[in-house]
Design a protein that fits this description.
Layout lengths: L13 H26 L10 H21 L17 H19 L5 H7 L2 H14 L5 H20 L1 E2 L9 H5 L9 H27 L4 H21 L13 H23 L2 H22 L3 E2 L1 H18 L3
Antiparallel strand pairs: 1-2
Length: 324
């Protein structure tokens, strides 16, 4: 049974072992992102522009893809370069850009805890587009697994970590800033639904492109990240006055950019050879890594909600990928 169809690759063959290792590394990188970002803080805030980090991440991915093609790690297709096949990736870049920017605007219309809980609806939207666009039918067992995954994400976001010096519910960063009532405006709810739909569509659309085109993955990534760099360069330039591109960057910030770039490349391999659903499980499993690293590096405490979320994730993995 294949990974895409719901099977778990065994470790008996080298390719299956490499696939499993890639998923584990990607899970670790996803989980390490937030703790590494917290280590970048100076006087309680990120000292560089977020748009700078996004732009540098996209540029790093682009350069790594170009390098892999130049040194021959992946073969350049024979004949005329398939530049016409690059155009569809512009929509992927736009969808990803819209999704990333909506996350920022959503914070104006709801508190962080509400956002963290409700944003797990993108698991459902991804599954919906996965079934509609790729014409894959999920069994009742797999549907239940995704519901458990959504519940695990909501449970963790509602209080999986806690600052030892603060007993307020919700994410530690929100608690440290003082009590904030749970709230969401009607416009915020509409934007959240739009964000979840765009997030699911961007993932499934990119998977569809990568699987339909008979091109090397590095070349497809080259197309995607070229548009990504151009889009984010425009957003950075139009973002108004602020710190320079590299201003405020430290070794931790460089590590954040590098890890995000490498993880983006790993995720593209998951989309081409696995599925958007596999990506959902990687992101959800990364919550466990995030919590453990946050407890170790930031002295935060694991709560009962974390252990419940971990249990739900384990059950979801067993239901979706276990033998039937």
């Amino acid at each position: 049974m294949s990974v895409e169809d719901g099977g778990v690759p065994g470790l008996g063959h080298p390719r299956q072992a490499r696939w499993t290792l890639m998923l584990l590394v990607s899970t670790a990188m996803y989980g390490a992102h937030a703790p590494l970002l917290a280590l970048c803080h100076v006087d309680g805030r990120v000292p560089f522009r977020p748009s700078s980090a996004v732009l540098l991440t996209e540029l790093t991915k682009l350069l790594l893809c170009a390098f892999s093609l130049l040194v021959g790690w992946q073969a350049w297709p024979q004949g005329t370069p398939p530049w016409r096949q690059a155009a569809p990736f512009a929509l992927s870049a736009l969808l990803y850009g819209a999704s990333n920017n909506l996350v920022i605007y959503l914070q104006r219309y709801m508190d962080p805890s509400t956002y963290q809980v409700l944003s797990n609806l993108k698991i459902g939207s991804t599954a919906l587009f996965y079934c509609l666009c790729l014409r894959h039918r999920l069994s009742a067992r797999q549907g239940l697994a995704l519901l458990l995954l959504m519940a695990a994400g909501a449970c963790y976001a509602a209080g999986g970590l806690q600052d030892p010096g603060n007993t307020l519910p919700g994410p530690p960063s929100a608690a440290a800033a003082g009590p904030m009532p749970l709230h969401i405006s009607p416009l915020g709810l509409l934007l959240l639904i739009l964000y979840c739909l765009i997030s699911g569509l961007s993932s499934v659309y990119t998977e569809l492109l990568m699987k339909r085109q008979r091109l090397p993955l590095a070349l497809q990534n080259l197309f995607l990240y070229t548009f990504g760099v151009l889009l984010n360069l425009g957003l950075h330039a139009g973002g108004g006055p602020g710190p320079g591109l590299l201003e405020g960057f430290s070794g931790w910030a460089a590590l954040v950019v590098l890890s995000q770039a490498l993880n983006g490349l790993l995720m593209s391999a998951v989309m081409k050879h696995g599925s958007s659903i596999t990506r959902l499980f990687v992101v959800s499993c990364s919550l466990v890594v995030n919590a453990v690293l946050s407890a170790a590096l930031l002295q935060l405490q694991l709560t009962a909600a974390f252990f419940l979320a971990t249990l739900l994730i384990g059950l979801a993995v067993r239901l979706y990928y276990g033998s039937r």
